[in-house]
Structure formats: C-alpha cells, structure tokens
Amino acid sequence: MAPIRFLLNGEERAVEGLHPTTTVLNHLRYSERLTGTKEGCAEGDCGACTVVLAEPDGAGGLKRRAVNACILFLPALHGRAVETVEALGGAHPVQTAMVEKHASQCGFCTPGFVMQLYSGWLNETLTDRQAVKDLVSGNLCRCTGYGPIVEAGLEAGRHEHVADGPAEARLASRLEALRGAGVFSYEGEGGLWLSPPDVDALADTYAAHPDARLVAGATDVGLWVTKQHRDLPVLIDVSRVADLMHVEEAPGRLYVGAAVTHSEAAAKLAGIHPDLGELMRRFAGHQVRNAGTVGGNIANGSPIGDLPPALIALGATLHLRKGDEARSLPLEDFFIDYGRQDRTPGEFVAAVEVPLLQPFERFHASKIAKRMDSDISAVMAAFKLGFAGETVAEARLAFGGMAGIPKRAAHAEAALIGKPFDEVACRAAMAAMEADFQPITDMRATSDYRLKAAQNALLRFCLSLRGVRTRVAEVA
What we know:
Layout: E1 4-8, E2 11-15, H1 24-31, E3 50-56, E4 62-68, E5 81-83, H2 93-100, H3 110-122, H4 129-135, H5 146-157, H6 165-179, E6 184-188, E7 191-195, H7 199-208, E8 213-215, H8 221-226, E9 234-237, E10 247-250, E11 253-257, H9 262-272, H10 274-281, H11 286-291, H12 294-299, H13 307-314, E12 317-322, E13 325-330, H14 331-334, E14 335-337, E15 340-341, E16 348-355, E17 361-368, E18 379-388, E19 391-400, E20 407-408, H15 410-416, H16 423-436, H17 447-465
Parallel strand pairs: 1-5, 7-9, 8-9
Antiparallel strand pairs: 1-2, 3-4, 3-5, 6-7, 10-11, 11-16, 12-13, 12-16, 14-15, 17-18, 18-19, 19-20
C-alpha cells in the first residue's frame, strides 16, 4: 500500500497510517499545525475551512479550485497540491485589500474568505460585483458584513494574475509523477481507499468491492463522518476517472459524465435553458459546486436534490455500468423509494444524457428555499411542456421535496394534456397535484406550504408564458 503523496504549500508530503476518512481540515490543524484553516460548521456551509487545490488539467497546465477542507477526505489530496492561507505570506493582493477595505472584524471567517477570493484571483473571475458575490456564496460572515469583503474582492481583481506557463507545466508534471499510474490504493487504521484512473479500472475495482462507498467530492458522504460519525471501511474515489469527467454535445443531446463537477457542468446546462444556469448558480455554495458532481447528486437518491427534478422534466436518460455490462433507463425510473434506487451492488452511474429543448417545447425551473444562496430547497419544481399549436401535447412536471423521491406529478400532467395552457387548465392541474403528493412537514417547510408553493410555481410558469408579469419572489 502506498502513502498519500501531495504538495502542501509547495512542500512534498507522504502521509500514511491515518484512516481514509480523516478530513483534510483535521490533518492541517492537528498534524501540520496550520491553524489558519478554521472549522466552523464541519458540513461545507460556512467556508471557514476553504483551501485551494491544484491538479493537472490534462493539457500541460493546472486547474485550481477552492474546496471545503472540512468534508474533503485526506486521500483525495493524492497527486494534487493544496494551499492554505499560510502560503500567501500576509502580503498578497487579496490580503492587502481585505485590510485596506476594513473587511475583517472578529477574523474567524477571514482566512476562508481570503482563500476563496485568492482562487478567484488565480482564475481571473474577480471581474465585477455580481461575480464576487457569487464567488463568496459559500462563505459565511457573522460580523463584518459582505459589503467590505466584496469591495476587497473587486480591489484584488484589479491586480492582474500573470501565470508562469513553464512553472505551471513543471508543477503539473511533478503532480502527475506523485499520482503515479494504475489504481492508487491506500490503507490506514483498518480503512481502505481506492482511486482508479479509468472507467474499466473503476468497474473492476467496484466489482471486487461491491459494498464500497463511491465518493467524488464527498460533499454528502463527508457529513456522514463529521456529523453522523459513521464508519466507512472501503471507499472508491471516482474523481480521477477520466472517462467520467467529459461533457459532450451531440445532435439534440448533452452527455454529462458522472464525475463532472457542478461548476464544470454549469455553463453547458445553462446553454439548454437560462433557468438551469440560475439553478446551478444557486446550487449550494461555490466550494461545494467545485467538488460535488452531477453523478453524485443523482446517485445519492436524495428527495431534495436540485438537479434530478430538472433533468427528469427534460426527459434525461441515466447510463449505468457494472463490470463489462452497461444499461440505460429513464432517470425518473432510477428512484424507487426513499433510500432505494434501481442500482445493484457493484453498479455505478456513468453519465446522464439530457435532451436539448425543441422549438415547440417550453421549460421552467424554480428553486424555492429560505435563502437565495447556499440553501437546501424546500421545493424544487421543473416543468417542460411540448405544444402542438396552442395545445399541450406533452407535459413533464417534476418536483423535489414533495415526496420520498424526485417525482413527476402524473395527475397534474394529465390535467394539462390536450388543453391550451391557460389559467383554467393550469388551475385544474394545480388542484390535481393534491392527488400526486402528500408532502411532509419538516424544518424547511410545512406540508401545506410545500403543496401551495408547488402549485404556485406552475401558475407562475403559466402566467409568464402568457406574458403576465408576476411579482412572486423566487425565494418564499
């Protein structure tokens, strides 16, 4: 078994003996004594633990992204470089701007903000006020307020980052050497971590360990460890499986590999419809979007995942693989019941195939949550209607948060078929939803609220298509 080999603030590390579910945050703070990285929530919400990862981009350069160290498992650093706030030295343009704009009071959140803005500076995305706001959507400040922090981001963005191409190529080559070839296998304290490089190796590895837990960004599984203290003896990392990391366009279709992150998929999904772009902008926080994957959001079977309802409404097809066998099924059929999916031991999600919208089709998606940014949906609604003239020929109304699985509203759909999509038909469909759903009451919303919000989302879609301006807030 090999050690975990990575670069930490430019210095090589080889770590062994720790359990694979040791978080990067705990290793930094307790083993490396790099205490600038803070623990706030231990679930990827507050951003106090933000660090920047670098890895080869496959074209001789580097890809850099900010991630939450609190839910990232230590073996995920293998063959990558991680930078903490200590690497910036105290005089970086981002740090200088934070001081000059008075963007820190208690200072607990400051290192996380600095690293998040640093990632934006490296990627040259500190371009305007909205871009900076979007960038720090995964960082929580309790005392300073976001105004000075946004101003600091804008000021830092005025200092151009000039990449040293040869140096980056050398670093990429060094990281590839650290990564090595074949399946990376690490064992510590009775836990096993396996990281295959391609889909065939993944199929073989999963077949040999069908009870293993698949992880990519661990934005969900990480909480099983930090909040539920669950023991995960075998984990298979899919974040390096090159075959699962492609987004491909084909005539009338978009193929998204299961290991494509939300950040990487966002622009292509927005190309299908602007509502998908807005949905991805509001999907968790920036650091979570940089780590979490499209396949993970589907495979975990969550009834409140944001993407499945939208993809179901669009008529997406899911591609799975087990060993040498592959199969496909409509995405909606993958979800059987709460906690149950149509997936056998050793079978994994490989890709999702999304049909592009046709000229006679109309689409709408609404995320209804208590906060605009970095919040879990109370109701996720997505609709696609196909028209024959003024008549609804096809209706696909999909919801999250309304049942134990992402689910279509069959009775409401039937109420629309063969009718013009006017307010009369819409209200009939709204009434029919009562036969489709009996949502639960929990901390996010009551049952009555969820049903009313779902109904009103459809009404809003109807009124918008008919040119009626609505004043319904996106966040209820």
